[in-house]
Design brief:
The complex is a heterodimer of chains A (305) and B (390). Chain A has 305 residues and is mainly alpha-helical. Chain A is built from 12 helices and 2 strands. Chain A has a domain of 208 residues. Chain B contains 13 helices and 14 strands. In chain B, the strands form 2 sheets. In chain B, strands 7, 8, 9, 10, 11, 12, 13 and 14 form an 8-stranded mixed beta sheet that branches. A 6-stranded mixed beta sheet of chain B has the order 2-3-1-4-5-6, sandwiched between helices. The chains are: A mainly alpha (305), B alpha/beta (390).
Chain lengths: 305, 390
């Protein structure tokens, strides 16, 4: 039972991380109608910035804050320099353009930081597991990830639903021309949204950096999972992204933790281990397929689309 | 006048003779990984190879050397394509390298079919040591099972009664987990093969390991994945609870990133940077001076390939078409290896010692690997019987 709960926490933690990445992706996808494959590069930059700044300031927290600001800045510059040329074009152009950016950022990082990768060390007091309930030890830092991400989720929800800026963002999503006609600077608004998305991606990268370390191309595999989350949750929906993240995080962990053992009960050792491994690596796609059969628009389709 | 002309002509012809001979080069195709995170390994191998060439005056067996570096991108399908390109378009005399067992296995057929002289400097797939062995293919590394088998012996010495095994799900991962089970006498309470190379989060697997309550965990995670695995193992608070034994997980490339996290985690290796022979001391010192970093075992094995090729080309006096002659010479392992002298088995895999290594923090707060003891002497891989060469 405790083991089950521990795996449940693992699933939640993975889900939280996916949410940070998917929230930015779905914001940009839903509001600006832009497919951004370079989102993973911003995740990578967040991690590299955090590792460098933490080394420079000798403080994890300071490094993280500086990295967040730096990634948001890079995101906004990127929007002005490159992304603006892509609006209004079809999605294939988006994919080609942003894929080019992804390659560009990988090369840039190699030039600046070298190919070996970096390490973002945790403060020593974080390097421990604490007893969540009697008999269950869980890595403290992973608990911190869960808590901080929940706080960020609440913050984004508040920002989008309760502030003037959020109202403009929602309005811009449903009718761009009308908002522009009312005298709102829609260009600036898009730059801000892209910066926010970049900051979220960078935040995901720097939170994950102490666990997965910092290396070139680190954002590419996880971006695939983030796209799965966006699709399941409904494009453009933050709430959908949240629910879908938890779903995908849990599905992936359950797939890795229990499916091979479950199969062992029915099949021979070798058959169950190879089938189990194959199944556990495709659980999240199975979940996506199932959701799309029942709800082709995703769980929480954005009202405007 | 005519005499002078003839004399001049003769002199010119004599002068041209050796010059023509010098245009003959040893062409070496070098396959490794130069993109993505494993580029750190590829660069270490390349650096060591270049250093080896420097130490030989950029000549092997008296012939100048031309090296073509090719990137396998960690992918078997790219590796085999690059191998074919080196053999068919570039007509190389030697193919050297291969980090990954699955890339090597994909590339074995074109190498063997074309009878290209091959020196594998890392990958140790069991099939390559057994049924796929070839008269023209040599290894300066090991067979995959040997290193984990040495770790298994050490775990017996430490009185480990039960173990949880974990590694990545590809050719080498399977060999490694099989290898440790060859020698480890305790009970295996669980084993996991994780998705490779894209799975980098091991939370579910570490939870499993903790729940299985073993005396020890054995892990094989090469390259960057080793940094991630050890980091997460420490973060899970397991370091004080369940000791970790490793093969190819803590090395000179990962140690500068792991730092304190790796201290006290034992591993086995056929080469450690402090092995006390002159060849090794020169290699390590010159590598540090030239590249401002410590060489890893990947580099050491690749450095040895230079000596091996040099011995072969010297033995046939530069006649690179004499493959039989080169093969016979290479079988003698007649060169100075950084691991000390060794012999080749019938399958051209070294018969060699394996050492226990430990990561320590030095007084100047740098970190380094040290030889602690010899775990096994003159070890031969268990697949040599399956090789048809005798």
């Amino acid at each position: 039972m405790l083991y089950f709960f521990e795996q449940f926490l693992n699933g939640i933690q993975l889900g939280m991380l996916l949410f940070l990445l998917a929230a930015g992706l779905t914001l940009i996808f839903g509001i600006m109608d832009l497919v951004n494959l370079a989102h993973g590069s911003l995740y990578m930059l967040g991690a590299y910035f955090a590792a460098s700044f933490a080394e420079w300031t000798d403080s994890f927290l300071l490094g993280a804050i500086l990295a967040l600001a730096a990634t948001a800045l890079v995101g906004m510059v990127l929007e002005v320099v490159a992304m603006r040329r892509l609006y209004g074009r079809n999605h294939l152009d988006h994919v080609l353009g942003t894929f080019g950016l992804l390659l560009f950022f990988n090369e840039l990082v190699r030039l600046i930081w070298g190919p070996a990768g970096m390490t973002l060390s945790l403060p020593p007091e974080m390097l421990n597991a604490i007893e969540v309930v009697p008999g269950l030890f869980y890595p403290l830092y992973r608990l911190v990830i869960i808590a901080v991400t929940l706080a960020v989720a609440v913050l984004i929800y508040f920002l989008i639903m309760r502030t003037r800026l959020g109202m403009l963002i929602r309005a811009g999503a449903s009718n761009r021309e009308m908002v522009g006609a009312l005298g709102v600077n829609i260009k600036l608004l898009y730059t801000l949204v892209f910066g926010l998305g970049a900051a979220l991606a960078g935040f995901a990268g720097l939170m994950q950096a102490p666990i997965l370390t910092v290396q070139i191309g680190m954002g590419e595999n996880i971006l695939i999972a983030a796209f799965v989350v966006v699709t399941i949750g409904g494009i453009g929906s933050i709430r959908g992204a949240f629910v879908a993240s938890l779903l995908v995080g849990l599905a992936d962990t359950v797939g890795r933790a229990f499916v091979p053992d479950l199969l062992r009960a029915f099949l021979s050792e070798s058959a169950s281990s190879s089938l189990g491994r194959a199944l556990s690596s495709m659980t999240i796609y199975l979940v996506m397929a199932l959701v799309l059969i029942v709800r082709p628009e995703g769980l929480f389709p954005a009202a405007s689309k | 006048m005519r005499k002078v002309c003839i004399a001049a002509g003769t002199v010119l012809a004599l002068a041209a003779g050796p010059a023509m001979g010098q245009q003959k080069t040893v062409k070496i195709g070098f396959i490794s990984t130069f993109t993505g995170p494993p580029a750190a390994i590829g660069n270490d191998m390349k650096n060591s190879f270049e250093l080896g060439l420097d130490h030989h005056g950029r000549k092997l067996g008296g012939l100048p050397v031309e090296v073509i570096y090719a990137d396998d991108q960690t992918k078997p399908e790219v590796g085999v394509q690059k191998t074919q390109e080196l053999i068919e378009s570039n007509h190389v005399d030697f193919v050297v390298g291969y980090i990954w067992s699955n890339v090597l296995l994909a590339s074995v057929k074109p190498l063997v079919d074309s009878k290209t002289m091959t020196v594998v400097t890392n990958a140790g797939a069991s099939q390559f040591a057994g049924e796929l062995c070839s008269p023209y293919a040599f290894s300066t590394s090991w067979q995959n099972d040997q290193t984990p088998a040495a770790v298994g012996l050490y775990m017996n010495q430490k009185g480990v009664k039960s173990a949880f095994l974990i590694g990545p799900n590809y050719a080498a991962g399977k060999d490694m987990l099989a290898g440790v089970q060859q020698t480890f006498k305790g009970q295996i309470v669980g084993q996991e093969l994780t998705r490779w190379p894209d799975q980098l989060d091991f939370s579910a697997e570490l939870s499993k390991a903790r729940a299985a309550k073993p005396d020890a965990i054995f892990a094989f995670y090469p390259g960057g994945a080793g940094v991630q695995f050890v980091t997460q193992y420490v973060q899970a608070g397991l370091k004080g609870q369940i000791p970790l034994y490793t093969a190819f997980t803590v090395d000179d490339l990962s140690l500068p990133r792991l730092k304190d996290l790796a201290v006290g985690i034992p591993g086995a290796q056929e080469w450690v940077n402090d092995l006390p022979n002159l060849t090794n001391q020169k290699f390590v010192a010159d590598y540090r001076a030239k590249y401002n970093a410590s060489p890893s075992f990947y580099g050491a094995q690749t450095y040895d390939a230079v000596g091996l090729i040099d011995s072969a080309v010297t033995a046939v006096k530069g006649d690179l078409s004499n493959k039989e002659g080169m093969r016979k010479e290479m079988e003698k392992a007649n060169f100075k290896s950084v691991r000390g002298n060794f012999k080749f088995g019938n399958n051209h895999i070294p018969i060699q010692n394996f050492y226990l290594q430990d990561a320590v923090k030095n007084s100047d707060s740098s970190y380094s690997l040290h030889t602690v003891a010899t775990i096994v002497k003159d070890d031969q891989d268990r697949f040599h019987d399956r090789c048809s060469m005798k």
